Amino acid sequence: MQKTALITGITGQDGSYLAEFLLEKGYEVHGLVRRHSISNTSRIDHLINSGYHKVKFFLHYADTTDSSNLMRLISEIRPTEIYNLAAQSHVGVSFEVPEYTAEATGVSTLKLLEAVRVNGGNCRYYQASTSELFGGLPETAPQSESTPFYPKSPYGAAKLYSYWITVNYRESYNMFACNGILFNHESPRRGENFVTRKITLAVANMIAGKQEKLSLGNMNAKRDWGFAGDYVRGMWMMLQQDKPDDYVLATNETHTVREFVEAAFGELGISVRWEGSGVHEKGYDEETGKLLVDVNPEFYRPAEVEFLWGNATKAEKTLGWKRDVDFNKLVAMMMDADLREIAGISCEEYKEGKMKK
């Protein structure tokens, strides 16, 4: 039987990796794309320009806040699986646009679930949930499916609604609906306003002489960072089970923002020496003494999530899921991609040139 997947948020990091993954498995893939005055399909242009397009890969203009459009598209496409990845997904931005975040990240989930129910409720549904549900309380770490929720941002609160309305539709209408509580997952396709990509882009720009230093917020914030490609595989595995359930996907380890900075510079053979603390903390090139990193209080959030560390034991045992890319490989992958794009060389080539000087 031909499987047909519908992906909301297909132009994002996760959507692009998931589309590739499903196409390789023989799926017919449909993606929802919001209409913009300029193209926003850079992450999936290689699929649009491939042999898949209009044979196995189809795009539709839509917005998950538009319930009538969702009803029509689900009726026409008749997907066997739906992956709801669309959202206003930036935590910091959610404090600036809380009402829109509630609509796009929270209420839109209800509209999509209702469209599924009205159209028969037979397809399998994946809801992109988030570690921001937990609020980063150190005493609850490592956080698992049974950890109490305590969101600390409009984004987290909107995702909390999405989580529970998914559970409610599963229990009320016997729908196959799963929540994937994913901890931070990154890649070279990560948005440039997320801290990991901000770091690797800044380091590459500094090497290319296009930026003087890197300014960050809370250097002590700890995150459980994994590779997005590993996590989309976990999304698919959740929908292949006999019974629907909710799962945490995480690496089972945590690193500070400071450690990510050190690893990024380390890929170029640069050691960072830290001085000061808090807003006065600065990072210098151990060899040259050049200022590389400082702290800008403007990047602190109104309510800071200090500590996220996931426990993916359930997913590992039940789904057989495990990550393939560890923290150091992830940083290396991202750093190399940005350096090649901006400076036209690889990290290894840069280090070799540095050693010859």
UniProtKB/TrEMBL annotation:
Enzyme Commission designation: 4.2.1.47
Reaction(s) catalysed by this chain's protein: GDP-alpha-D-mannose = GDP-4-dehydro-alpha-D-rhamnose + H2O
Lyase among keywords: yes
Top-level taxon in the UniProt lineage: Bacteria
Protein's job: Catalyzes the conversion of GDP-D-mannose to GDP-4-dehydro-6-deoxy-D-mannose.
NCBIfam families the record matches: gmd
Family: Belongs to the NAD(P)-dependent epimerase/dehydratase family. GDP-mannose 4,6-dehydratase subfamily.
One term of GO molecular function: GDP-mannose 4,6-dehydratase activity
Annotated keywords: Lyase, NADP
Pfam families, per database record: GDP_Man_Dehyd (PF16363)
Residues bound to NADP(+): Y125
Protein name from the UniProt record: GDP-mannose 4,6-dehydratase
Cofactor(s) recorded in Swiss-Prot or TrEMBL: NADP(+)
Membrane-spanning parts: none
Gene3D superfamilies linked: NAD(P)-binding Rossmann-like Domain, UDP-galactose 4-epimerase, domain 1
Keyword NADP carried by entry: yes
Entries under InterPro entries matching the protein: GDP_Man_deHydtase, NAD(P)-bd_dom, NAD(P)-bd_dom_sf
Residue ranges constituting the NAD(P)-binding domain according to the UniProt record: 6-334
GO BP field: 'de novo' GDP-L-fucose biosynthetic process
CDD domains according to UniProt: GDP_MD_SDR_e
EC top class, as a word: lyase
